[in-house]
Amino acid sequence: MVTTSSESVVVGSPYRADCPSRRILDRIGDRWTVLTVGALGDGNVRFSELRRRVEGVSHKMLTQTLRALERDGLVRRTVYPEVPIRVEYTLTEAGRTLREPLRALEEWSITHLHDVSTSQETYDRTRSS
Fold first, then answer.
1. What is the distance between the alpha carbons of residues 51 and 74, in angstroms, rounded to a whole number?
2. Which class would CATH give 2-128?
3. HSE of 104 in the Cβ direction (CA atoms, 13 Å)?
4. Which of 54, 69, 81, 100 could form a disulfide with 74 if both were Cys (CB 3.0 to 4.6 A apart)?
5. How far lies 81's CA from each of 64, 85, 88, in Å?
6. Whole-model pTM over 0.85
7. Which molecular-function annotations from GO does this UniProt entry contain (predicted)?
8. What is the pLDDT of residues 61-114, one digit of tens each?
């Protein structure tokens, strides 16, 4: 565990409400973060292409997600002074290291989709009886 100079809290226990690592887990566990990081895995991507890749995300949510990821140092935003202005997003080195654990979650969800769906249906049937 580490104590930061800017915060008088012990860092390294996300089970504690005051631990900054909990905020990081909140960010990387967010649905739109998981999907956005996955969609950025292929290099530089423009906003409109990201919206196409991440079906269902609103303009507002994608904007908020990208800004938060940029603030956290996981995404780099590059503005090209062209007419019209071109903006591209790419994962930083830290963002690229996040791809593997998120890919594992993605694969787990695909592998266990049937089991989870079956459990949900069973649960719902027993609850509605």
1. 18
2. mainly alpha
3. 5
4. 69
5. 23, 6, 12
6. no
7. DNA binding
8. 999 999 999 999 999 999 999 999 999 999 999 999 999 999 999 999 999 999
